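## retry 2 of 3
previous attempt timed out at serialization; input unchanged, resubmitting
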Amino acid sequence: MPTTKLAIYDPPAPDMPMLAVVVVDGELLACEPVYSKSEGELLLSKVRENLPEFITEARLPQA
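## retry succeeded, writing output
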């Protein structure tokens, strides 16, 4: 079973957005800018609901 971590990171600079990230087994699978913690939490809750499909799709070879 993969180890999955979902997190929201503070902006690295004042003029940059927060980042919502998905990390599986130490590999960054997704990173999306969000403009508030609540937006990031909503995004990550949707990811959590569909996590098995999300991981499978993210690991498919890219064309």
